[in-house]
Amino acid sequence: MQQHNVRIFVGFDPKEVVAYHVLVQSIIEKSSIPVEFSPIALSNLGGIFTRERNALQSTEFSFSRFLAPYLSDYRGWSLFMDCDMLMRADIAELWALRDDRYAIMCVKHDYQPKIDTKFLGQTQTKYEKKNWSSFILFNNDECRALTPDYVNTATGLQLHQFKWLENEDLIGELPVTWNYLVNEYDYREDAKNIHFTDGGPYFEEYKNDDYAEEWFAARERLLFVQPRA
């Protein structure tokens, strides 16, 4: 059965509410195909997500993101995105890259973070496959191992390093431009989806980072109301 809607789960954290809404705005205004959004918000997941918060978590959705296939009834494809992103391209371009040979698809970053702390003084943890899970296309039927019980009990590395897959051949690779890390990578005009991984422009110390002006412009469009004639 053909899936017409792009089902998008976006991490939601009360510490950076504006990030969620600006990202959604940036996707809507550039998309040429139908999109639907679901915030991964802990307040919406009562009885489903029950694990206690880990001290190393920088956001509330660090682990709950892996519920996306379950919340999709393990049907079709879905996309998870961190909220500290900005879409600069038509998401139809990404949707066209789906490949049923894979259980998930992501950007396979290979880097060491340049800083030890990020927004709000959070520790910048360093581990294999760092930031792979910040932008994931899920082939949901192939991700049935991600039950609520597993997501609630697996270790952080089991989840973020995709240990729940039978093998790594099931991880498809997306072009780096779909999860382009601000400050970690040099400015690229052709970056399709920007990731303010160290901290978004809504935090004072990051307001002058690459692509920040574009983020603020998107926020202004989000606040627009047509005045009465």
Automatic annotation (TrEMBL):
The highest taxon in the source lineage is Bacteria
Q: Which source organism does the UniProt entry give?
A: Rhizobium hidalgonense
Q: What is the name of the protein in this document? A: Glycosyltransferase
